[in-house]
């Protein structure tokens, strides 16, 4: 009897340690998400406050990336919390959230491809850049991005509604994106669509990288700096795209660990959320928010609450002037 009590006590302590570990990880994720959203909100504010940014294609695409990443992060975090605490919600809101999440998931890589193409036109065809980058072209480009982003999620939604019994729509469940893949053929078709789409995007990014690299070799010393900076931008976008592709493979990797051990599954899912969901979306502020001189000045102004314009005046006011030389009589 004492042995049973001892084992029960050890099991209870182990469950308490596991629960505390999970709560600590969830809290750390909330801190990272909060920092990410704060930085993104400051950048969106900087974009909206300056008209010069709203007339430039690269900044418009950058703002769309910030918006899509922020919305994706909020929805992903809600699903992450719900999955960890196994909180059931109504199936219809869950379907809507998962569909929007899938649209945003595809939108970000497509916008990165559009940004690479914009840099290709600006560097390799500078004389035609103003004619190509017009308001009409921007509108058509954004429309194409959102239309392509909606194809796979709408297919997943229609396929899910076709196989699910109508009575299940009124039920409650722990929400996850994998919930909408009830049949094997749905998951396989979705995987094929995603792989073809990402392969197409990787080809475009590789094309822009090669073209900009060729332009960098033949550029003059004055344009060399701008061309090399554009080349580094394309490389960073390629890294983002690779991380987004890995995010698509996460559910298949996690399910293999689910068959092995629950704690290993939780740790792998937590690591994947940090590395493949939060990290890629932190690169966009780095690429255009901190590396872009024009945008960085405006961002610094709002981070410092406008104090950056007062500091030079204060320093000039407090500057110690040299004493006048005294003449001997």
TrEMBL record:
Q: What is its main location?
A: membrane
Query: Which is a Pfam family this sequence falls into?
Result: 7tm_1
Q: What is the designated name of this protein?
A: G-protein coupled receptors family 1 profile domain-containing protein
Classification of source organism: Eukaryota, Metazoa, Chordata, Craniata, Vertebrata
Which domain of life does the UniProt lineage start with?
Eukaryota
Start and end residues of each G-protein coupled receptors family 1 profile domain = 39-288
Alphabetized UniProt keyword annotations:
Membrane, Transmembrane, Transmembrane helix
Write out the transmembrane intervals. Answer: 27-48, 60-83, 89-121, 142-163, 191-210, 231-250, 270-290
Q: What GO cellular-component annotations does this UniProt entry give?
A: membrane
Q: Where does the record place it? A: Membrane
What GO MF terms are annotated?
G protein-coupled receptor activity; odorant binding; olfactory receptor activity
């Amino acid at each position: 009897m004492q042995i049973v009590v001892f084992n029960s006590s050890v099991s209870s302590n182990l469950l308490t340690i596991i629960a505390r570990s999970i709560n600590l990880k969830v809290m750390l994720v909330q801190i990272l998400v909060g920092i990410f959203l704060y930085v993104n909100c400051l950048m969106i504010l900087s974009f909206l406050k300056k008209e010069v940014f709203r007339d430039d294609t690269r900044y418009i695409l950058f703002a769309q990336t910030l918006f899509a990443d922020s919305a994706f992060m909020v929805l992903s975090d809600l699903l992450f919390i719900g999955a960890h605490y196994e909180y059931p919600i109504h199936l219809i809101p869950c379907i809507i959230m998962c569909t929007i999440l899938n649209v945003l998931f595809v939108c970000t890589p497509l916008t990165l491809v559009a940004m690479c193409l914009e840099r290709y036109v600006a560097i390799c065809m500078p004389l035609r850049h103003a004619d190509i980058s017009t308001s009409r072209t921007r509108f058509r480009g954004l429309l194409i991005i959102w239309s392509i982003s909606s194809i796979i999620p709408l297919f997943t939604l229609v396929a899910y509604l076709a196989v699910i019994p109508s009575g299940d729509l009124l039920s409650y469940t722990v929400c996850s994106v994998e919930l909408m893949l009830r049949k094997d053929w749905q998951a396989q078709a979705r995987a094929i669509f995603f792989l073809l789409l990402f392969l197409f995007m990787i080809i475009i990014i590789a094309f822009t990288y090669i073209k900009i690299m060729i332009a960098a070799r033949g550029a003059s010393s004055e344009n060399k700096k701008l061309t090399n900076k554009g080349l580094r931008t394309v490389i960073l976008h390629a890294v983002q795209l690779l991380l987004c592709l890995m995010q698509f493979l996460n559910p298949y990797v996690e399910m293999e660990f689910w068959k092995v051990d629950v704690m290993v599954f939780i740790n792998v899912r937590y690591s994947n959320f940090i590395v493949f969901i939060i990290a890629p979306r932190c690169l966009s502020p780095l690429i255009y928010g901190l590396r872009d001189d024009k945008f960085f000045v405006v961002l610094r102004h709002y981070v410092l609450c406008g104090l950056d314009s007062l500091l030079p005046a204060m320093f000039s006011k407090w500057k110690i002037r040299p004493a006048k030389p005294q003449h001997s009589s």
